[in-house]
C-alpha cells in the first residue's frame, strides 16, 4: 500500500513537472524566443500562455523586453566648430523590434546593447555638435540637432534589431574653462560699451554746456548794452530838463539848489562845519524865511527836444567785447536729431526812451 502511494505521488509530481516545464507565459511587456538546442524555433510577441517540449534540455525560452527602453549619457564633453567645448547631457529611447536579430547579434543581452549604444551615441553627438558654431547649440537649432542625431544612430542599431524612437538633449553647458573665458569676454564687451556710452554722454554734456555758456554770455552782453544805452538816454534827458528849468529863472534855480544843499548839509549827522556867515553858502540862510522876489522877466522856455532814439544795432550781441561772431554750435544725437541753441540767443530789441512832451510847463511864479 505504501509503495503504491509512493508511485502515485511520483507520477503526480512527474506530471506536474512535465506540465509546468512545458508551459510558459508571455505578458504584454515581454517577448519570448524559443530555442531548441540553441536554434531559434519560435518567437512569441503576443501576450498569452504557450507550450513547448517539457524540460529545458530540448526547448528553452528567453524572455526579452518589449517596452521602450532608455539610454542616458551624462557630462559628455563635445567640441563645436571654432574650438569651444560644451558639456552635454542627453538620452535616447529605443525598442527591440526584431527579437531574432537581437538574439543573433547581441546574444539577447541588454548589457551588450547598452555598451554599443553608449559608444555610438557619444560619437553621434560629437559629430552633430562639431558641425555647428558656438552659439548654434544654444539656439533654435537644438530640435534639428536632435533629429540629426536620431537619424545618424538609427542605421547602426537597426543591425541589432533595435529601433531608435527618439533622441533628446537635456543640457548643454559650457565647460568651466570656456565658461570663465566667455564670462570675461562678455564682461569686457559690456565695460567697453559702458565706457563708450559714458564718453558720448560727456561729449554731449560738454557741447550742451558750451552752448548754454555762449547763450548766457550773449544774453547778458545784449542786456548790458541796452541797459547802458537806456541809462545814458535817461541821463541826457534829465540834464536837458535841468538845463531848460535853469534857463527860465536863474534866481529860482539858485534858491532851489541852496535849499536842497541846506537840507543835506545841515541834517542831524553830527557833521561840524566852520564857515563864515557871509559866505556864498549862507546866502539865503539869513533871509528870515522870506523868499526871493519873483523874476518878472522870465527867459523864453527852451523847447523840449525829442529824445534820441536808440539806433537798432545789427551787430552781434558781443560787439565791443572783443569776441567775434561765430555760428552757433550744433550737435547730432544718437537718434539722428539735431541739437541747436535754444530760443533766447537773439539780441533783444533796444528799449526806446519815452518821447518828451511837446512843451514844458511853465514854472509857477513864487510870491515873495
Overall tally of structural domains: 4
Shape verdict: rod-shaped
User: What structural category do the secondary elements indicate?
Assistant: alpha+beta
Strand order of the largest sheet: 3-2-5
What is the residue-averaged pLDDT? 75
The counted number of beta strands is: 10
Low-confidence stretches: 315-326, 341-348, 356-368
Q: Please tally the helical runs, counting DSSP H or I stretches of 4 or more residues.
A: 6
Calculate the terminal CA-CA distance, rounded to whole Å.
187 Å
Q: What is the alpha-carbon Rg in Å?
A: 59 Å
Report the β-strand fraction as a percent range.
15-25%
Q: Please provide the ordered H/E string of secondary-structure elements.
A: HEEEEEEEHHHEHHEE
Describe the structure.
The protein is α+β, with helices and mostly antiparallel strands and 368 residues long. It folds into four domains: 2-65, no CATH class; 69-174, Tetrahydropterin Synthase, Chain A; 199-245 and 305-368, no CATH class; 250-267 and 274-294, no CATH class. Helices cover 42% and strands 18% of the residues. It is built from six helices and ten strands. The protein has helices at residues 2-21, 99-106, 110-130, 142-158, 176-248, 250-265, and strands at residues 23-26, 30-36, 39-44, 48-51, 59-65, 69-79, 85-96, 162-174, 331-332, 338-339. The protein has a three-stranded antiparallel beta sheet with strand order 3-2-5, covered by helices on one side. A hairpin with a 2-residue loop joins strand 2 (30-36) and strand 3. The longest helix is centred in the middle third of the chain and has 73 residues, at 176-248. The protein is rod-shaped and about 185 Å long. The protein starts with a helix and ends in a 29-residue tail after the last strand. Residues 315-326, 341-348 and 356-368 have low confidence and may be disordered. It is found in: Membrane. Pfam families: Band_7 (PF01145).
Amino acid at each position: 500500500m505504501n509503495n503504491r502511494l509512493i508511485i502515485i505521488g511520483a507520477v503526480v509530481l512527474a506530471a506536474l513537472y512535465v506540465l509546468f516545464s512545458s508551459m510558459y507565459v508571455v505578458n504584454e511587456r515581454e517577448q519570448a524566443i524559443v530555442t531548441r538546442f540553441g536554434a531559434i524555433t519560435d518567437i512569441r510577441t503576443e501576450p498569452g500562455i504557450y507550450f513547448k517540449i517539457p524540460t529545458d534540455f530540448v526547448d528553452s525560452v528567453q524572455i526579452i523586453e518589449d517596452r521602450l527602453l532608455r539610454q542616458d549619457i551624462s557630462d559628455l564633453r563635445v567640441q563645436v566648430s571654432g574650438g569651444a567645448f560644451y558639456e552635454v547631457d542627453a538620452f535616447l529611447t529605443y525598442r527591440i523590434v526584431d527579437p531574432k536579430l537581437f538574439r543573433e547579434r547581441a546574444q539577447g543581452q541588454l548589457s551588450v546593447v547598452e555598451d554599443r549604444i553608449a559608444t555610438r551615441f557619444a560619437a553621434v553627438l560629437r559629430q552633430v555638435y562639431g558641425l555647428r558654431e558656438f552659439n548654434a547649440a544654444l539656439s533654435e537649432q537644438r530640435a534639428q540637432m536632435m533629429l540629426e542625431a536620431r537619424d545618424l544612430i538609427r542605421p547602426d542599431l537597426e543591425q541589432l534589431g533595435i529601433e531608435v524612437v527618439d533622441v533628446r538633449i537635456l543640457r548643454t553647458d559650457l565647460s568651466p574653462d570656456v565658461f570663465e573665458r566667455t564670462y570675461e569676454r562678455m564682461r569686457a564687451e559690456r565695460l567697453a560699451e559702458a565706457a563708450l556710452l559714458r564718453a558720448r554722454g560727456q561729449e554731449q554734456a560738454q557741447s550742451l554746456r558750451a552752448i548754454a555758456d555762449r547763450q548766457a554770455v550773449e544774453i547778458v552782453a545784449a542786456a548790458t548794452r541796452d541797459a547802458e544805452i537806456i541809462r545814458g538816454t535817461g541821463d541826457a534827458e534829465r540834464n536837458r530838463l535841468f538845463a531848460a528849468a535853469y534857463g527860465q529863472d536863474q534866481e529860482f534855480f539858485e534858491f532851489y539848489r541852496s535849499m536842497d544843499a541846506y537840507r543835506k548839509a545841515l541834517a542831524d549827522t553830527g557833521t561840524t562845519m566852520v564857515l563864515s556867515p557871509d559866505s556864498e553858502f549862507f546866502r539865503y540862510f539869513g533871509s528870515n524865511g522870506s523868499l526871493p522876489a519873483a523874476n518878472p522877466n522870465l527867459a523864453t522856455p527852451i523847447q523840449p527836444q525829442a529824445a534820441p532814439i536808440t539806433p537798432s544795432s545789427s551787430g552781434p550781441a558781443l560787439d565791443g567785447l572783443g569776441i567775434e561772431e561765430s555760428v552757433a554750435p550744433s550737435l547730432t544725437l544718437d537718434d539722428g536729431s539735431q541739437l541747436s541753441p535754444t530760443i533766447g540767443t537773439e539780441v533783444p530789441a533796444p528799449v526806446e526812451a519815452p518821447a518828451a512832451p511837446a512843451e514844458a510847463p511853465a514854472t509857477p511864479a513864487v510870491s515873495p
